[in-house]
Every structure is written in structure tokens, then in C-alpha cells.
Amino acid sequence: MLIVKKFGGTSVGDKERINRVADRCIADYKEGHDVVVVLSAMGKSTDELIAKAKDINPNPPKRELDMLVSVGEQISVSLMAMAMAAKEVAAVSLNAFQVAMHTTQAYTNARLTSIDADRIRAELEARKIVIVTGFQGVDKADNVTTLGRGGSDTTAVALAAALKADKCEIFTDVDGVYTADPRIVKNARKLDVISYDEMLELASLGAGVLHNRSVEMAKKYGVELVVRSSLNFNEGTVVKEDTKMEKMLVSGVACDKNVARIAVIGLQDQPGVAFKLFNHLANHNINVDVILQSIGRDGTKDISFTVAADAVDEALAVMENHRQTSLICEKIDVERNIAKVSVVGAGMTSNAGVAAKMFEALYDAGINIKMISTSEIKISVLIDAAFADGAMNAIHAKFIG
Amino acid sequence: MLIVKKFGGTSVGDKERINRVADRCIADYKEGHDVVVVLSAMGKSTDELIAKAKDINPNPPKRELDMLVSVGEQISVSLMAMAMAAKEVAAVSLNAFQVAMHTTQAYTNARLTSIDADRIRAELEARKIVIVTGFQGVDKADNVTTLGRGGSDTTAVALAAALKADKCEIFTDVDGVYTADPRIVKNARKLDVISYDEMLELASLGAGVLHNRSVEMAKKYGVELVVRSSLNFNEGTVVKEDTKMEKMLVSGVACDKNVARIAVIGLQDQPGVAFKLFNHLANHNINVDVILQSIGRDGTKDISFTVAADAVDEALAVMENHRQTSLICEKIDVERNIAKVSVVGAGMTSNAGVAAKMFEALYDAGINIKMISTSEIKISVLIDAAFADGAMNAIHAKFIG
Predict the structure, then answer these.
(1) For A18, A224, B225, B375, which has the most beta carbons within 10 A of its beta carbon?
(2) Taking a C-beta distance cutoff of 8 angstroms, is the pair B368, B341 a contact?
(3) What whole-number distance in Å separates Cα of residue B265 and Cα of residue B304?
(4) Contact residues on chain A for B21, CB-CB shorter than 8 A
(5) Is the dihedral of CA B375, B381, B385, B390 positive or negative?
(6) Which chain B residues in 22-61 lie under 8 Å from chain A, judged by CB atoms?
(7) Is A61's CB within 8 Å of B86's CB?
(8) CA B208/CA B178 separation, integer angstroms
(9) Closest-CA residue to B358 (of B390, B389, B380)
(10) A140 to chain B: nearest residue by CA?
(11) Chain B residue with Cα closest to A98
(12) In order of start, what are the domains of chain B with their CATH numbers?
């Protein structure tokens, strides 16, 4: 079996943890499996490098920032290879150049374009454990790039796809994917299996276990993902194609507290208004989530939408720049302390009344709903962030127990 | 003019120093020159990385050690590019992959084989300052290698040769090449010019300003070297082909205190004995310096030689392994606290009596000579290390003043 195992920065944060990860990989290797390990930078080392950069240049060129922070994973992988060598297991560390991990040239937020897996295959055939730097790539001109948030997960899934691995294990500090964040909802329980689509909704909704980029890629290439704990040997949660098992109505409740709502009031009611607004934001790489359009007073319309809380100031600045030209409106309102609470489940497509049940839970808890958004397998509501934990517990209790 | 400027780890040890180096490079750039900067790892960072490695594996694989320590220079060059960007000068950092700095596969001690200067030329044509990682390379299979001691000097000279640079400035913490180490000999004075050959003898004799690998390469490709201080704007010492100027009899006095002498007593007097002895040592990459063979008692012969003090234990172990087979002898003696003091000067080839004058200086100072070795442009003596400083002062006073 060919297994790709990905460990995050906390799992390789010091010598003891590096040795623990090494042991875990060696166990698979000694059972006869081919093992590819993807590592993030140790502990807080990426943050430390960024702080060093900003001390020298508060606004460092992104190309140079990628050149700098990419050393973090190179340190992890070489130390891991040394740890394995100390245990008398042949291992080799490889960086993005060495595995030809090609990406676009979007520094600090590049997307993978291709991987040449020949080098890795050759090393595996020589019975070595192959340890690859996560998070980083190279563009066509051999400049170093990084993949942005969730980058190491994406590296692991991409390698699993390129190598046609039997599975891709993502190690984290929780036992798997839960029906809700167990730190907030006491009754939350671990799921054994979840479909790619449900996982995608949960990932993009702030469940925080896996990033949606990696889930999207796993779905695209049919890579079987396993989310499991690096602290124990529990089975974890398998993420794969829709299974035949009887479905739970709702697989999980997720919450994203990093949300702000912007309301554009009194826009002219004519074609292209929405396009222009969101095109301006897209040009500045500002991701917009929930969008709601309603009829305003006197033949105008209102558009409300949410952005990540840390993008709201840039979004407002971009919009302000166009108030005199393509974005003529009465006023722009902003609400910063918003949470998005969602229920996700493939089961809800064939079950009426899920939305009603969710709203009932919130009503019983006395929580006011600001906006509602639905898709085939999820229902999201925006509420005051102060009530987020209460809302999650109320909804979880209603659907799951 | 195309100038290659190399700065060592101390010169880029912190933010202030990085900014100072940036200013210095920008000054040349703003005069219209093309500037290529070669940097070592910051301050003690290489030592720290090695300590981290040894903590995980006391005997780390050399391939992985190179993979690890090479991050040090990548940090320096990216931070330098950021510092220049903060001063609104276009700069780009490049690592060994990006400039195709190809080497042999001798990890931790690789030798440069070729450089593809196209990328650097393109960046210079775009009027960027190009900042290149010193000390590191890649082998044919794209594994990371490092060049060993003096590696960054060698990188700088190799780049200067590949780019046909007008000069290669090596920045250090002294004003240039001195007639002797000014910390030991008070009257030592700075040389304005020195030939490659004299510099080679001084470098290999422990003058410590430049490594002989870089001087050899400069000589081979006719690269004009300038050794100068990173702390001031003094002119420094130019190292170039033999000049027509009137020669000083002796250009410098050098001392290497890191020497041990091994004496092999009572070897059989037959062909191949010396070959076998030094072949064993060469197979373990142990460099032998001064060799002296003399006739022993009863038809045997004695061979004495020196090695670096930190290689003496390995040398003895290697020899011990062959005592029963190819290295039959009466006994092996070792003297650990030896210094080699040398005078160097192209002028001495045409001047009789230089050796006599040197021995007189030592005799006057009451210092016993253990071994003597001479070449066309140098005379070296081995003495007790305790007398090294006294010997240097006595010899310097005799020849230079």
C-alpha cells in the first residue's frame, strides 16, 4: 500500500514530537508499505520568519517572503530524515524543486499546476521513506512560491493523487471530523465517514479540520482522505465519495466567527450593478460569502454580503473608491461581530423541514437571525457573534443529541 | 562595471548590519554598476542549525545536513532583498537551484562544476541587484550540497568568473591582507597588492583572510579579488596576477596553530611504504601537510608529517587499523601542540639567504625548530605552539620591521 501522511507544525514542534512522528511512519514502513510524509514548518517557525521579515521591511515583496518562509518546511523535512536515520531507516527529504512541485506565480497564494512524481517513485523503489516539504512550490521560472492557508494539506493530497496513493492521512490534534466543535458543543461526536461534499461544506464553514482546497482536490482526483489524531491511534474519519450507508439527516454543525456583514443600501435598480460591485472586490482578491439582494425604497435595491472579518476594511476602502462612479448608492453599512452557524448533511436534500427545525432551535434559544442562506446540503444563518456558542449547542441538541 | 560583492555571516548578523550592507551595495548600483551580492548565513545560524541536527541525530547523514544548513543562506538573501526593497531598489534573491550552481555530490564538501549565469544576467539587465546564496550548490540529481569551509568566498569568485565580472570584492572584518596577523604582530601592515601565488601560500598557511580554494579559482579564471573591510571604506588589498612592481622580499608572515605532528618510527625501508601510509589517510579525506622522511636505525626509515589538530585522532585510528598489515613499524608518536610559522614572498625566489635570516630570527628568540619545509615562495617551520606569537614577531621584525 502507498500511504501519504501529513503532519502539521505542532506535530513536529520539537525533538520529541519529531521522533514520535518518525516512529509512526516507520511502523507503516516496516509493515511493508511505501510511505510518503508531508510536513509543515515546525511549531511557530513560519510566524517567526514573517516577524523577522516585517522587522526589516513592513511590506516585504511577496516573492521574497515566499523565498524566506519556505525554509521552514525544509528544516522540518531534513530533521525528520535525520531522526529516521538515527533509527536506522533509510529516508530522504525533498523540497519543492526536487519534486518539481509546480505552481502558478501567485506568490503567498499559489495554486498547484503539476507534479513530477518520478523522483519520489525512484526513492520509494529504493525502499526509502520520502519526506516532502508541504506548503511550497516553484513557478515556471523556478521562483519559490507558497500555497497559502491549508497549503500543506493540499500538498499531501496532490502528492497522493500524483502517486495514485491508496490513502492520504491528515494528522491533526483532534480525533477526526466531529458533528460540531467539541470545545463548544459537549455532545459533539466523531463521524466515521463523511462524503467529500459534506466535508467541503464543513471545511468552508469553519470546522477548521481540513481546508476546502485540499478536500476539493481529493474529490477531483478521488483521493481517500483520513483525518486522524497524531496523539493517539484512533481510527479517525474517512472522507470519500458518497457511500451507500444510511445517512444521518445532519452530519455536522459548524460555526465561523470570523465574519463581517456589509450592506449596500439604495443602489440603482439597473442591470450590472451587482456585477460591478463584486467585480471590484474580486479584483482585490476579496472573497465574498453569503450574498442577499432585496428591494429597497423608491425603486432602488439593497445588497448585503459577508466577508472575512479581516478583509472588511479593505473591502470598504475598495468600495469607497467607486462611490462616485460605478457604485452609486445611499449608504454602506457594516456589522463586524457576526457569526455564521450552519448545519450540513447530504441527508437534508430529501428531508423537508430541516430549515424549519433549525430556525425553531434558534427561536427556542431566543437568538435573532440576521440573514439566511441555503444550498442543497447546508443551511447557514448569520447571527450576532455573542450568541454563536449557544446557537451551536441548541442546533446540535435538536438534530444530533 | 559588473561587481560581485561577498559578505560573511558577521556582516549580515542582524537587521542593522543587513541595512548597512544593503546601503553599500545600493551605492554602487546607483553609480550605474551591475551588482551581484553573495551572502553567507547570518551570524551563528549555521552553527545553531548543526546543533539542532546533532541533537536529533549525533551522526546525521551528510545529505540531510546540507539540506538543513542551506536554509541559512536562503534566509540571508531573502531578508537582504527585502531590505533593498524597503529602500526602493529592485532586488531579487536567488538560491543555488535558481542559478544552477552545480557541484559534485560530495555532501558537506562539494566542489563547483558549473554555473548557468543566464538567470543572473537577465535579472541584471532588468536593473536588479542580484543576491545569491553563498556556500551551497546542487548536484546532478538536484540534491542540495554545501561547499565546506570558505564556501561563500568560492561562490563569489565562481560567479565573478562565470559573469566575467570586473572585480570580486570579499568583505571581511579587517582592512585587507596584512604582512602578519595584526592582533599578534603590532608592526604588521596592510599590503596594497599581492599576487595570487603569494596569497595562496598565505591562505593555506592560516592567514585566515581568504580560503585557498577561492584564491585558486580566482587565479585560474583571472578574477581580480579585492579583500576589504565591511566596517569602513578603506581601499583594501588587491589580489591579482604578478605585477611589475618592485617586490618586497617577504610579503607576509603567517601562522597556523591548529597543527599536530605524527611521527612513524621504524618503517621497513622498501618501495611503496610511503604510498600506502598516505593512501590510507587520503581514503579517509585526511589532509596531510608537511611531510619529512629520514633514515632510521637498522635499515628502517622514519616518516613525520603534520595534520590539522582536529584530524589527528582519526588519522591515528586509521593508521592503527593497518599496523598489522601494510603499516608495520616500531612505533607511532604524536605531538599535538605544534604551530607552523611561515614567511611568504615572491621575492625570495631570487634572493639567497632568506631561510638563513629566518632561522637566525628564531635562534635570537631562543625558539627550537622541529621541522622545516620550503617551496619556491615560502619557508615554513614547525615549532612548539607556545612560542608561535613570539616567533611571528621575531620574524616580522627581521624582514619587514
Answers:
(1) B225
(2) no
(3) 8
(4) none
(5) negative
(6) 49, 52-53, 55-61
(7) no
(8) 11
(9) B380
(10) B98
(11) B142
(12) 2-172 (3.40.1160.10)
Which set of grid coordinates corresponds to residue A88? 536506522
Q: Report phi then psi at A50, rounded to 5.
A: -65, -40
Q: Please report the pLDDT score of residue B335 as a whole number.
A: 93
How far is residue B30's CA from residue A216's CA, in Å, rounded to a whole number? 49
Query: Chain B contacts of A49, Cβ < 8 Å?
Result: 75
Q: What angle do CA A45, A48, A50 make, to 5 degrees?
A: 110
Among candidates A18, A74, A142 on the partner chain, residue whose Cβ is nearest the Cβ of B71:
A74
Do the Cβ atoms of B310 and B356 come closer than 8 Å?
A: no
Interface test with B, best of A73, A82, A144 (most B CBs within 10 A): A82
pLDDT in tens, A137-175: 999 999 999 998 789 999 999 999 999 999 999 999 889
Q: What is the pLDDT of residue A243?
A: 60
Tell me the nearest-neighbour CA distance from B97 into chain A, angstroms.
8
The predicted-structure confidence for A250-278, as pLDDT tens digits, reads as follows 888 999 898 999 999 988 887 778 888 88
Of B15, B71, B93, the CB nearest to A64: B93
Q: Identify which of A63, A68, A82 has the shortest CB distance to residue B75.
A: A68
Q: Decide if A382 contacts A206 (C-beta within 8 A).
A: no
Expressed in percent and rounded to 5, the helix, strand and coil fractions of chain B are 35, 30, 35
The gap between the terminal CA atoms of chain B, to the nearest Å, is 38
pLDDT along chain A (401 residues), means of 10: 96 96 97 98 94 96 97 98 98 97 93 93 97 97 92 96 96 89 88 89 77 90 94 92 64 90 88 84 84 79 89 93 88 93 80 81 90 83 93 91 82
Considering Cα of A215, then A219, then A222, then A224, what sign does the dihedral take? Answer: positive
Helix (H, G, I), strand (E, B) or coil at A242: coil
For the cut 70, the answer to whether the pLDDT of residue B89 exceeds it is yes
Lookup: cell for A246 = 444510511
CA closest to A142 among chain B residues: B98
**What is the distance, to the nearest Å, from the Cα of residue B235 to the centroid of all Cα atoms in its chain?**
22
Residue B47: partners with Cβ closer than 8 Å, 6 or more residues away: none
Amino acid B272 reads G
Question: Could A79 and B61 be called an inter-chain contact, meaning their C-beta atoms sit closer than 8 Å?
Answer: no
Residue B195 has pLDDT above 60, yes or no: yes
Residue A130 contacts B, CB cutoff 8 Å: no
**Per-residue three-class SS string for B209-242:** CCCHHHHHHHHHHCCCEEEEECCCCCCCEEEECC
CA distance B134 to B8: 9
Of B23, B45, B64, B146, which to mutate for an interface test with A (greatest number of A Cβ within 10 Å)? B64
pLDDT in tens, A42-82: 999 999 999 999 999 999 999 999 999 999 999 999 999 99
Chain B CB contacts of A15 under 8 Å are 55-56
Which amino acid is it at A25? C
CB contact B90 to A (< 8 Å): no
Residue in A59, A61, A119 closest to B81 by CB: A61
CA distance A319 to A283: 12
Position B331 pLDDT exceeds 60: yes
Question: Do residues B264 and B304 touch, judged by C-beta distance below 8 A?
Answer: yes
